[in-house]
UniProtKB/TrEMBL annotation, chain A:
It is found in: Cell membrane. Belongs to the AzlC family. It is a multi-pass membrane protein. This is Unannotated protein. The keyword Secreted does not apply. One of its GO terms (cellular component) is plasma membrane. It comes from freshwater metagenome.
TrEMBL record, chain B:
The chain crosses the membrane at residues 40-57, 69-93. This is Unannotated protein. Keywords: Membrane, Transmembrane, Transmembrane helix. InterPro entries: Brnchd-chn_aa_trnsp_AzlD. It holds the Pfam family AzlD. The lineage of its organism: unclassified sequences, metagenomes, ecological metagenomes.
Length: 223, 102
């Protein structure tokens, strides 16, 4: 056995474990929003894309309809499709393997894979699969732990769970605020969502902010 | 079937469909600059809206309560480059303290 762990393996495992641990926050958020432990676990197993999962439980938790929840989550899931476009020529898989590759195509597996570019195609593939499977494993284990833990606690507000959920969203959002246009968009979207809450049905104030993103995407010539 | 099950099943089906088409369509279909830019902006807009709605509204009212304090603490923690678990835990702790003792 080699004593030297390759940088690809090291990157994949450290990302898998850190990101997987966020699953605790998701499991807790799901319970706080009224989902059962089984439903939280199914979201992590089947949906398996963090931001969309948080969005579903967030919108339902805020009193939104299933349609609002699914629409918000799906808008957030579009980026995985674009990651698939990047990964397909690198992975070169067909049939059943392509189905599996699609399911583990998320921010982290794509990110680790693309960051191995200097090490060659084999390292990029290894990074994708190791990170994809690694995050899948830990994310699901920690979701179960978070859901069971939150269920045992009872009243979400007494334990700060109702604040932990927006804090978790903010943690997901933070690394994306690295441009001034992104920061302006963030503030405008937050203001629009709050301002329209008294007049629109629950869930819609969140979805309509996608219009701001689309507007900015069409208008702005360069990032 | 209640809205919890509908949202679990529909979200999962659409999420997989979106991942799978990316692996299956020709690259040029999805590589338009407007699509790429919008794709960067959509998570920013939706996540910001979710943070705002969950921190400053309850049902259809705008309110300022213990959750806003929790969010403020999370913001400070992120500014100080705290790791994710510290951000979430400090927000929960601050909010719970306010909720239980004031």
């Amino acid at each position: 056995m080699s004593k030297v762990v390759s940088p690809t393996v090291r990157d994949s495992l450290s990302v898998s474990l850190t990101v997987g641990a966020y699953g605790i926050a998701f499991g807790a958020a799901g319970i706080a929003s009224g989902f059962s432990v089984l439903q939280c676990c199914l979201l992590s197993l089947l949906t398996f894309t963090g931001a969309s999962q948080f969005a579903v439980v967030g919108v339902i938790g805020a009193g939104g309809s299933a349609i609002s929840a699914v629409a918000t989550a799906s808008l957030l899931g579009i980026r995985n499709g674009l990651y698939g476009v990047l990964m397909a020529p690198i992975l070169h898989v067909r049939g059943f393997k392509r189905l599996i590759a699609a399911q583990v195509t998320i921010d982290e597996s794509t990110g680790v894979s693309l960051s191995q570019e200097k090490l060659g195609l084999a390292a990029m593939r290894q990074g994708f699969w190791l990170t994809g499977f690694g995050v899948f494993l830990f994310w699901n284990i920690f979701t179960l732990a978070g859901a069971l833990g939150a269920q045992a606690l009872g009243n979400p507000a007494a334990w700060g769970l109702d604040a932990a959920v927006p804090a978790a969203f903010l943690g997901l959002l933070w690394p994306r605020l690295d441009t001034s246009s992104g920061r302006i968009l963030s503030v405008c979207a937050a203001a629009l969502a709050i301002a329209t809450t008294p007049i629109l049905p629950a869930g819609l104030p969140i979805i309509i902010t996608a219009g701001l993103a689309l507007g900015l995407g069409v208008m702005k010539k360069s990032i | 079937m209640n809205k919890f099950w509908v949202s679990v099943i529909a979200t999962s089906a659409i999420a997989f469909f979106l991942k799978f088409i990316g692996h299956s369509v020709p690259e040029k279909w999805l590589s338009h600059p407007i699509i790429k830019r919008t794709n960067l902006y959509i998570p920013i807009a939706l996540l910001s809206a979710l943070v705002a709605v969950q921190s400053f509204t309850h049902e259809s009212r705008i309110i300022l309560d213990h959750r806003a304090a929790g969010l403020g603490i999370a913001l400070i923690a992120l500014t100080l480059k705290a790791p994710f678990p510290v951000v979430v835990l400090s927000a929960a702790l601050g909010s719970a303290t306010l909720y239980n003792f004031f």
